[in-house]
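Lab notebook, page 48
Experiment: co-folding of the full assembly
Goal: obtain a model of how the components sit together before planning crosslinking
Operator: M.T.
Materials (sequences as entered):
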Amino acid sequence: MSFEHLLSRAGERMQQSAIRQMGTVAASLPDVISFAPGYPAPETFAWDDYRTIADDVLSGADGTALQYGPTRGFGPLLDTLVSLLAARGITSTVEQLQLTTGSQQGLDLVARVLLDPGDVALVELPSYTGALTAFRNVMASLVGVRRDDEGIDLDHLETTVARLSAEGRRVKFLYLVPNFQNPTGALMSLARRRAVLDWALRRDLIIVEDDPYGALYFEDTTSPDETRPIKADDRDGRVIYLSSFSKTLSPAFRVAWVTAHPSLAARFETAKQALDLCTGNFDQRMVYESCRRGVLDRQVPKLRAFYQRNRTVMQEALRERLGDRITWAIPRGGFFLWASLPEGVDTMKMLDRAMRHRVIYVAGSPFFVDGSGQQTLRLAFSFVQPARLVEGVERLSTAIMEELETIPKLAAKQEG
Amino acid sequence: MSFEHLLSRAGERMQQSAIRQMGTVAASLPDVISFAPGYPAPETFAWDDYRTIADDVLSGADGTALQYGPTRGFGPLLDTLVSLLAARGITSTVEQLQLTTGSQQGLDLVARVLLDPGDVALVELPSYTGALTAFRNVMASLVGVRRDDEGIDLDHLETTVARLSAEGRRVKFLYLVPNFQNPTGALMSLARRRAVLDWALRRDLIIVEDDPYGALYFEDTTSPDETRPIKADDRDGRVIYLSSFSKTLSPAFRVAWVTAHPSLAARFETAKQALDLCTGNFDQRMVYESCRRGVLDRQVPKLRAFYQRNRTVMQEALRERLGDRITWAIPRGGFFLWASLPEGVDTMKMLDRAMRHRVIYVAGSPFFVDGSGQQTLRLAFSFVQPARLVEGVERLSTAIMEELETIPKLAAKQEG
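Observation: model returned without errors.
Model output:
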């Protein structure tokens, strides 16, 4: 029995996330060290605090804690978000906020409220695959814009939009992850942030700013000022800003949020009603109480130090084992180290070899909408304990050294 | 600043849920008795059990409890669902299951994987507004089919599909809530269930069977056999079956599921990746442990008795206060009593009067895709305590009596 003839066009085309596929593969292998998923480290979670909070929330004194809740979100949590955003330089009222079931739902809301089939969403080369999938699933057209050391390449952005406009295409927004981007870990410069906001104003386009990692800057290289969101300087409400508690409290709570112009926030609320009615009230209480009781404030400095140490361990191991055979920019925050191998290496093909050495990563090409990036890969240092980080880099190095040896042979074979 | 020109066509058209709007209105009124939302009663929740379970899940012994999880769902919970479905007569493998963040997400998945703009979804007259909204939001066309005492009217179904086919329309599925339907509370007869499945086979269409209330039959009128899902007799996998823990454990956990043909379940998994990556792992553990430790099995008989008593209290109060001025079919399970008032009453207009008497309900017309149902209304007896049920019916009766008095006057005015 087949139901292919009854699928929607979007349903036919939907693609598996490359990252989650690799996670599934990795889970089925024994003793594999996985640098693939961008998971927070569970040993950092505030287990004791959460136990106490859950006990209080589940006392039964407040029946609404386990009830359906408002689509916008739990009122006191929305108020908390207003304060939390203010600390990031962002002025937001409750009317501008929409709670989401993880930031992935925020991306889906953006896609559904803004994108018609064929509309263009501009994305970085490379860009976060979860966003790419959300935009593709409404049959939007994704057009890539190059990056340089400071962030999005404004010249390429302008020529791209000029070309698309000349072709009569409808460009809706530019999607950016300015703080410790997934996958590159890169931090966009403040000057570039201001420039891209000016550009969006001139072009009358929306910026979708995704900021799950902003709080997790590494104090050895980066000051909090450098993570100032683009949204903080947004005067006319054209930046849609997404952030989340998944990387700071726990991804299991699925609590994130969007702040946007009130007219857009109202659309997100309406759209969300049909998506899941409301984000789980129990999870929202857990998060709210974690903020109110200072758990979040106590966690974040610890997390900065924790992930910075992991970053350093991975980086030193890579340098020691591989020298200049691979290159990367030092991650100044977040979860990821983005590496480039010599031209000719195909990291997607190299995965088999890596898996034989019981190590796994995410190949870079799925992050590029233009089909490039074959020689890149993403390594998450967030989730693996230091001794295993070193062991994993050793395995990866062995795989890379073997792979590099095959390249001249391949070339010779083609000549022969 | 306006961003209307950047909205998608779906985004422009999205409609607020009538039920949730009324919930918002009600929440802002002092001392209002609300029969509007289909909420479970929080005093029935297993608070003590949940506290114990949360304490164990949050011990920190299993780090994955607060981590991202597989998109399909937490493995042991999927296994539990296989058993739970077997008890309902449904054979399902894990490959046929997809966990969802509430059943609303299941409806959204169905919409996105099956419906292109303009495709037809057949729905009952009346039908659940959450489903209507999910289908409308992908710009599907909703066509209503009449019901009779036994359920969907097969003759009207056949003539409707024949007409649509002749017009070249693509009909994808029929959406049904056979057990204690929202909004009517009606139970579809077993004969009608078999007949509609045969019909779907002949017409090569899918049935989307939504069953959140099946476990909550009232033992004074109904045996469990009468709630046998259509899916239990589905031989070729053309029934997509949705169910949920929202009405039996808690809606705050947002844990529900879909079982469908493996090829469709795989599409739902892919689609869900872009919706929210995964349903919250903490919530899934809470639900899994509630099943494993027998909380669900202990809860369900209590809930049947609890809601049956509420139904009886409401019904007797209505009969006493209003006699034959309103009519309804006795609810044999679920949360709702569906009432019809005399022709000429518009329950949407009557809401203002009801609110002046500090009582609220859901007007019937939003449940009808053909614009009918003006004289109907939905009363949820699930959420209000018995003394307040009686008080609420008194207020409602006063409002209705007043409204009925205006009808001949209105008629006289039009004649004059």
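Interpretation: The longest strand of chain A covers residues 141-148.
Next step: discuss with group before ordering constructs.
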